[in-house]
Amino acid sequence: MPREDKRANFLTDLGRATMRGVRKCPKCGTLNGTRGFSCKNKSCDVIFKEAGEKKKHSTEACRITAGADTQIYSVRVRDKGPDYRGFVQIPLIQSVDGSGDIFIGAEPLGDPMLLLQMGARCYVESCQRKSQQPSLCSHIRAASQCYKDATSLTLKNSALNSLPIPQSIKTDIWQLATDTPGPLVQRVSKNIMVVKCKPEALHQFGFLHFSFQQVRNKEEIEYKYYCGCRSFKIQPAARDVSFRKCVHLYACVVAFASDHNLSQV
Fold it and tell me: What PANTHER family does the record tag this protein with (predicted)?
């Protein structure tokens, strides 16, 4: 077989070309490698985020599904512990070059303070107590550098009906799931969920955090959970936390039961 034919046959099974390892500059459209720190177009001044920032901020903030008009982020509150989180609201910012691209945060626009001018707000309790005026806190910065979206958990009607849950609770769960668009339960970390709730002063967006953890004692394994809702907090503290139940706990149970992989955990 001629050398040209061998070479042609060798290249026939390479498959289609992909864009793996390549990203387009949001300003000029030039294709760059994912490891590059700046656009290779010399007339373009865009600086990319370092690759290490994705891993660094992956647990700090997580964007949840909350509608098309605004962006809501679940952010970690460092001084309260690993399982304590709050919410940050950041507006959708249109690119200044008219390309139609949407940027998360103001770093691509060059001025972090632009976030506050366009309506970014931190709803972490400690930040709201410190100042009545909006300020550029660490939680807003973490949200502006967020690369992670929450995982939406599907709620199956069959799972809801099959579980031994009081009928009144089932009705409340279904109302929370259907009254407003979007998923009822979203997972932001291994043991923290964002669950829909009725909007009130403490939960203005209609979302709250629900966390659970496994504690291993000398004799047995205990499962503890905490909900940010008012009904959970006002219930008398009992040694057996299973007595402190709320509709958001049951919503998480149904969401886990609706997913085959999660139901095995």
Answer: C2ORF42 HOMOLOG (PTHR13518:SF1), PUTATIVE TREBLE-CLEF ZINC-FINGER C2ORF42 FAMILY MEMBER (PTHR13518)
